[in-house]
User: Fold this.
Amino acid sequence: MSLTVVKNATCTFCGCVCDDIELHANAEKIVATKRACSLGESWFKNHTAERLYPEALIDGQEATVDAAVEVAADYLVNANMPLVYGMSNVTCEAQREAVSLAELVGGIIDSHTSL
Amino acid sequence: MIYWGGNPAECHPRHFTKYSLTQKGKFTPNGRKDRTMVLVDIRETPSAKAADLFLQIRPGKDFELISVLRALVKGQRVRADAAAEIGLPMQQVHDLVGMMKAARFGIIFFGMGLSMTRGKHMNSAGVLMLAAEMNAFTKFVAMPMRGHGNVTGADVVMRYSTGYPFGVNLCRGYPRFNPGEFSTVDLLVRGDNDACLVLGADPGATMPQPAIDHLARIPTIVLDPKVTHTSRLARVHITTAVTGVSAPGTAYRMDEIPLPLRPALKSPYPTDEQVVRRIREAVQRRPAWLPGRNGKHGNLVSHGM
Ligand code: SF4
Assistant:
């Protein structure tokens, strides 16, 4: 089985965001993590590219992403004071989208910082 | 170098070796030997082994120690029993002030043990003031020890897009900032908001129970690589790719250096970015939001407001 090697990969498990990690991965999972600490190693090895969860759930029932996106949009549009919260384990690009969504629905946006 | 209310040996394992303590620098050619490390905490964590001086203070006395330090730094007199209340011999506090002033470049890394205990943001403000005042004597900075991956990025993105780092209310169409009023736990505990989009977090596992109860009452939407505690009480869950493992993008290090992510895997799921964009586009296809559109302020509107 061929291994992909990613040099200088970035670990986002803790605030150190080490960017010197060498990852060895096959199609499904990461098999080796050079230079990562034990926390980083388990973070990388814990996440696989397998399909472990349904792509979306609406009221606990499996659904398509398309349907879930529409339902989510309805909830947010119909709310008087929606809250967008979290944003710690997502990329800056996703955070930007989240800010513009919060602005569009006239909501509040907040991150882990406030805890 | 002072670590305050944090346990980097266990929570940020490579902080010492990659950044702060043992790296050799232009002015610290001998690495660790050129540095003095002080740890302030309420219990002796594994990080204490790495410290030259460990100050064990009584729980909830962080603010008192900050105040005493600020006074001593400025040469003001401090009552001798002030140190006893903090749980330290006065001599140790004097030693610490001496060390801080003798440093060529000092830093205080402050963790959750400082900012989440009695005093909360007043403690953080105190540490920042202390670092600022130390600049009358030497170069001194303070930096929070950030936890999860990209919280720093969230601060930066919200700062440059809204002007405030967190807890931003856009209900009136312009940003307003008021921690304690527009911060998540307070909002949820008071039951103010009537819908919630959670991304890259699991408040269902970490927040106080009244907040979780409110999340279960209102329509909650969760975007996460896993079906989390929050997903189980949410109306909508969408599975997304894992940031940095199978989703590309940018993340900020705790010292606000943006770093590109280099994912090693291809996820069968869309990224958070793609999903949030699709929700935004779906919102844009709906009629524009107006006060009273969903009836709750209907009478205000019909009376001409
Ligand atoms: S490798 Fe370890 S220290 Fe570095 S970011 Fe990952 S968890 Fe943090």
Q: What stands out?
A: Chain B has a mean pLDDT of 86. The CA atoms of residues 246 and 265 of chain B lie 5 Å apart. Residues 2-144 of chain B form a domain with the Dimethylsulfoxide Reductase; domain 2 fold (CATH 3.40.228.10). Chain B touches chain A through 112 residues (CB under 8 Å).
